[in-house]
Amino acid sequence: MSNSTNPAPSSQNEEVDLGQLFTLIGNAFNRLFSFIGSIFIGLFTILINLLIVVRKNLVGFGIAAVIGGSIGFVKQMYSPAVYLGTMVVAPNFESSRQLYNNIAYYNTLVEQQDSIQLSKVLKISSRQASLLVTFEVEPVISESAKLQQYNNLIQSLDSTSRVEIDYKKFLNTLGPIDYKQHQITVGSKDRLVYPALRKPILASISENAYFKDKQTMTLKNIALNDSLTLVSLKETDSLRSVYEKVMIEEAKKQNASTSIVMEQQGQNNKELLLLDRKLRLQSQLESNNEQRLEGQEILKVISDFPEVGYVKSVILYNFVFSGAFAGVLLFALWLVLRAFDAFLLKRIKD
């Protein structure tokens, strides 16, 4: 009898343990939700306090904005406007890195205010060089361009390598110089300087001896490929002509049989192969023409500098808005310092 009653206390203990486990889990979730709720309550309290401060000092913020905006307006009235001009180029023969290095060099000269050296490099007057403000270059990025580059890469790889490189991994490996087109932006206080900048910027790349040698070699290889392709195309046409004559002779035979029919089918297959070969050779010639056209220039201009620079109409470049924003920030900083000073005085008295 005593043995038959032993399982009951064990079951009760298991139920007690499960109950305690669920209680602990419930308490953990309650603490988690309370912690998250306290964060939101704290953020809401901070927001309300900030709104109260702004409400109490609304006039002060308004006066600070007016004063800052007025200073910005005066600065904008008496400061010369900064004009912008852009040129889009497509570097060939892996000259993108040199383009970025050259633009960085020009910008360094501008920052150092070395108008004499800048005028020598860009072949402009010292006055025009002194009015240059900034040089920038960035890739022209579009989704279609990225997809085209990915497709070109995939076609150049074997089947095993294609599996290892997906689109996201490919995008992570792309750097600024890997894109085909790049936009050069020049800021200047002289709105008429841009036509004079085109030639020296292009010449700094196109007159580089390394790129000129690479261009010459590439064009020679294209010409050699053209000659070989034309020879192959001529031989293919000759073979097609021979097969056509053979098929005509076979068709003239009066005693046609199954073996002759099978032979004619074989001739037809060979003619199709020759036709396919001819189409591929013609496609190669078209590709060579495209490469030859693209290789005529080391740095190809897609979109040229404007004749006259333009003013960038962005609110962040507006001195009135910038001055008003700075005035509000300074007034807010003054309020923070005043509150901190009052806190320190209170602690000293205590």
Quick tags:
350 residues; alpha+beta; 3 domains; 5-stranded antiparallel sheet; 12 helices; 9% strand; disordered N terminus
Summarize the topology.
Layout: H1 7-56, H2 58-78, E1 83-91, H3 96-111, H4 115-122, H5 126-130, E2 132-139, H6 143-155, H7 159-164, H8 167-173, E3 182-188, H9 194-206, H10 209-252, H11 258-294, E4 299-303, E5 310-311, H12 319-349
Antiparallel strand pairs: 1-3, 1-4, 1-5, 2-3
Helix pairs in contact: 2-12, 10-11
Work out the helicity level: over 70%
Count of the separate structural domains: 3
Count every helix, treating DSSP H or I runs of 4 or more residues as helices.
12
Largest sheet: 5 strands, antiparallel
Protein architecture, described:
With 350 residues, this protein is α+β, with helices and mostly antiparallel strands. It is 72% helix and 9% strand. It has three domains: 7-76 and 320-349, no CATH class; 80-209 and 301-315, no CATH class; 214-299. It contains twelve helices and five strands. Strands 1, 2, 3, 4 and 5 form a five-stranded antiparallel sheet that branches. The model is unreliable at 1-5 and 256-262 (pLDDT under 50).
